[in-house]
User: Fold Class I SAM-dependent methyltransferase from Maritimibacter fusiformis.
Amino acid sequence: MTPDDILPTYERVAKGFARSRDRTLYERRWLDRALGYAPGRRVLDLGCGPGLPIASYLQDRRAEITGVDGAQAMVALFRQNLPHARVLHRDMRGLDLGEEFDLILAWNSLFHLSADDQRAMFPVFAAHARPRSVLVMTTGPEAGEAIGQVEGQQLYHASLSPADYQALLEGQGFEVLAFTPEDPDCNGHSVWMARYLGVT
Assistant:
């Protein structure tokens, strides 16, 4: 199991994933905080999956959503679930939309990339941010690799150290607003929130 297996796996399990995906919206507190900090309502959702529950929740709060997913099956489900949102079949790695957003999400997506590909995402985040844009991402609580499961299929996960993530964020002009490893109020997710100040 390697990072290259992630997109083919999600292509195979997209419908089952969408059916079983937790919709209790345990992410709500982080999403509400992010909307409170963000300068507007343009949202870039990287690794958007089927759009439920996160993108749907944000759209209900007047956000203008652009979803991006590398699995065509996920894009098709997103389009069905949020017909009035924009969704693009693109790999988040090296993404260059030529647009800026108020809120950038990499929820349960960044950690499927290899360590080197994760490092390369931080300029991508910055390229799609405007002053005071907010970035929310989930990582592991510490450096390492792990194999999880979805719909009976193995899934690769990797994480850098918190110190590495902080340095990468600051190096691209982001100010860390919060980091909660294994947040007990967010189903054990390790969540970062940062604000873009620009590179000085």
Summary: The mean pLDDT is 95. The chain is about 30% helix and 30% strand.
